[in-house]
Write a structure and sequence with these properties.
By secondary structure, the protein is α+β, with helices and mostly antiparallel strands. It folds into three domains: 68 residues, no CATH class; 28 residues; 92 residues, Chitinase A, domain 3, CATH 3.10.50.40. It is built from nine helices and six strands. The strands form two sheets. Strands 4-3-6-5 form a four-stranded antiparallel beta sheet. Strands 1-2 form a two-stranded antiparallel sheet. Helix 5 packs across helix 9 and helix 6 packs antiparallel against helix 7. It is extended and about 80 Å long.
Length: 258
């Protein structure tokens, strides 16, 4: 074992000064290879990246030096921001420690999945749209559609929406993603039916329903991470409420507003 360790120790001893060596100096403050690699580990093997990171750290140190020279550290704004950052760091560490000490179980994830996705899935609609800012443009587009011109061609010519380049195609949308005026109309339409103009904040829209279906039910693996985060957040909120109660938190003034 001693014969194996000796070369490793010797190699480490030789590598250490290189790793800690100064690559630049700014106002008497060194910028070391250690700092460069810490900022971007790719710097250890890529000279181009190393040079880019080094210049960035030199620029950063130059600004820091000037900030200290002008006394910004003594300003109340700096102290307040520093305190806020320290408090945010403490809270983040607290959240991490709490989450590690109170892990979400596989059973909790499975039970939540079954509860959330046990009912019918929301509807999805696939439709095309022509969005215009004036009623006269809407009337002109409808006249062309009634005359037999293809919806996608009219959308390319008239629509002011970004979907115009796709012939007005919006793709499959969950009902929760569709603006209320459009959704109410889609729910009453037949496939390939054209309706409009409808009044919307951007002006007017003409829509063509291309398809309707229930949203596919995701697998547990597809939503496992999202469910886990939601359960972790729920546990944390419950813990904060408990802390608040234990510490006798109460309002000294009523909350204003609605």
């Amino acid at each position: 074992m001693r014969h194996i360790l000796a070369p490793l120790i010797a190699t480490a001893a030789l590598a250490w000064p290189t790793y800690a060596q100064s690559l630049a100096e700014v106002g008497g403050v060194p910028v070391t290879l250690r700092q460069v690699i810490a900022a971007n580990p790719q710097s250890a093997t890529d000279a181009r990246v190393r040079n880019q990171v080094l210049i960035a750290l030199v620029n950063r140190q130059a600004v820091l030096n000037e900030a200290k020279r002008t006394g910004l550290e003594s300003k109340q704004e700096y102290k307040a921001e520093l305190l806020q950052d320290q408090e945010s760091l403490l809270i983040n560490l607290m959240v991490n420690d709490f989450t590690a000490a109170h892990p979400v179980s596989s059973q909790q994830i499975s039970e939540t999945y079954e509860r959330v996705f046990s009912g019918p899935m929301p509807e999805q609609y696939r439709y095309r749209q022509i969005v215009v800012s004036s009623f006269s443009d809407a009337e002109a587009a409808i006249a062309l559609l009634k005359g037999g011109k293809d919806f996608s061609m009219v959308a390319e010519d008239f629509s002011e929406d970004q979907s115009a380049d796709l012939g007005g195609e919006v793709g499959w949308q969950l009902e929760t993603q569709i603006p209320a005026p459009i959704l109410r109309t889609l729910q009453t339409m037949q496939i390939m039916q054209i309706t409009g103009p409808l009044s919307i904040p951007q002006g007017y829209v003409i829509i063509q329903l291309c398809g309707r279906r229930s949203a596919p039910k995701p697998t547990l693996d597809q939503v496992r991470d999202k469910i886990t985060r939601a359960l972790e957040e729920q546990k944390w909120i419950e813990y904060v409420v408990k802390l608040r109660s234990e510490q006798g938190a109460h309002l000294l003034v009523p909350i204003s507003g609605g």
